[in-house]
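Protocol step 4 of 5: obtain the predicted structure for the target chain.
Materials: sequence only (see below). No template structures provided, no constraints applied. The aim of this step is simply to have a reference model before the mutagenesis design in step 5. Sequence pasted as it appears in the construct record:
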Amino acid sequence: MSTQPLPLAGVTVVTVEQAVAAPFATRQLADLGARVVKIERPDGGDFARGYDTAAQGLASHFVWCNRGKESVAVDLKDPRGLALVRKMVAGADVFVQNLAQGAAARLGLDAATLCAAHPWLIAVDVSGYGAEGPYAHKRAYDMLVQCEAGLVSVTGTPEQPVKSGIPAADIAAGMYAFSGVLAALVRRGTTGRGGPVEVSLLDSLAEWMGHPLHHGMHGGAAPARTGLAHAVIAPYDAYPTTDGLVLLSVQNDREWRRLAERVLGRPELADDPAFATNTARAAGRAATDAVVAAALAPLTAAEALARLDAAGIACARLNSVAELADHPQLTARDRWREVESPVGPLRALLPPIVFPDAPEPRMDRIPALGQDTDEVLAELGVPEPQVKELREAGVIA
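Step 4 output (structure tokens):
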């Protein structure tokens, strides 16, 4: 039984956002109880709405990042539309934007301008490369930032670098924007003042590159691309069985001893100088992988996983996306819900942050473009004749 409200209940967020980074951040806020009013262009809205039609006619990126929000369609290039948005911001706790560099400042919607006018406001600027420096005005799409941050250089096989299969730069920036808002709300609770928050995709992903960055700066060379293997730990890879791949990871020499004795059937390898330490196993990776592969090859995946689990060795299946959707652990923990949308209910995962003493996270509908324009303008006190006039002029939708 819940005894406390969701932690962001009563917090109002206004956001001028598109694509993934800012929408992913504000969806986290909505999940935890905040009211999130999403400002979109009347002529199509957030361009992520048009990325694909995979989610029963809706774009999968948009479905993922925009549940629980209210959509208000306003033309910010029209002074009348901009005035409406500024009025919304004046009554908000948080404002988030990820417009192209310089666009928010031209509209007077940058964090510095808004926080000077509204000292209680927390205003977040999400950018590709930051507000200053030679890259400030470069376009910063996820794949490009993955390349600039070096992620692609350490991902893939020795022969072929590849980008991450998920928008890692966008997600990183979104999560830092989310946590930045939370930190600023805590500070405001102490000082009574909000303030600007700045997050860039490059800074965020560069932070996530910490291991290869420090390895390269201090060790003389960045870790090599190793596919599913680990650059400095062995065995740590995928190994074939009779009916699929099994992945395992040995993190220390005690685990190697257990693997050698209880899975490989080669107890002598626990003390063999060529295998006894991780340094030796990684240096002789081909030999290490060969002995592991030879032991697992005659087994089914289920048999291999059972032996590895019994020996206390970390292991996993190589699941497809479809298998993730039917993962027994997610099912057993009741992690799936249905979210309303313009095309009907869509299956979605509960967010990862759990508050056992509060209601479930809010997983309200995915909005149609401009679905909430009239309601929000009515709250602002805009009379119906003016709303009609603005709609006919194309300022709102």
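Step 4 remarks: The mean pLDDT is 95. The first helix runs from residue 21 to 31.
Proceed to step 5.
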